[in-house]
Amino acid sequence: MMLSAKNLFKITASALLLSGCSALLPLNYKDYSGSDAATLVIQQREEQSGMLYVSFYEKKGDCYDRMERFQLSPDMWDMSKKVITHKIPPGKLIAVQQLYSAGESKLTMDTFTTYEGVQWIPIISQPGKRYYFAVNYGVREIPADYTITAETDPRVVFSKFKQEPQPNWDAHKICQHLIGGS
Fold first, then answer.
1. What is the pTM of this model?
2. pLDDT 10s digits, 109-148
3. Bridging pattern class, strands 130-134 and 38-43
4. Which of 15, 40, 55, 58 could bridge 69 with an S-S bond, Cβ 3.0-4.6 Å?
């Protein structure tokens, strides 16, 4: 079967469009299973619920380029759980990104819009370490036996554990791309 130039163009354009979408539509994250895993504990408080992502980066020249991006979701059988825990490989440059509602809906022209807040929280994961993330606070390393629940007050955690995780990287230097964002 011979393809016409028009049909070949449609197939090529569709393939390019779909490959570009893969950068825009992240998959759900699957836990790393190595014994050297670092642990992310992300608290999603009711007033700041929204989409959560974990992105993996590599240094490329003067900026950090996103290699992979995954959506993080609470337990789909119990959506009341607002603590998400995942195992990640050590030595990776990661950023947890949370898009959250930061204001009340306002009527604009013909639709309601809500201001969306975005927070990037970068770390370089270390073997066996456990990291607690909270919107508007950042990240802290916490002991393996320190309990985090949906009711945990981030102010208490951040006053008890003051040291930011080291080493770290500068999320302000993320490489910009035309398709797929940063």
1. 0.73
2. 555 555 466 678 899 999 999 999 987 889 999 999 999 9
3. parallel
4. 55
Residue with tokens 């950023």: 95
**CA dihedral (171, 178, 92, 30) positive or negative:** positive
Tokens of 134: 């909270």
Compute the distance between CA of residue 163 and CA of residue 38 in angstroms, rounded to an integer. 17
> Between β-strands 111-113 and 63-72, what pairing exists: parallel, antiparallel or unpaired?
unpaired
Structure tokens at 4: 């016409």
Residues 34-43 have pLDDT tens digits of 999 999 998 8
Task: State which residues of the chain have pLDDT below 50.
Answer: 1, 3-23, 115
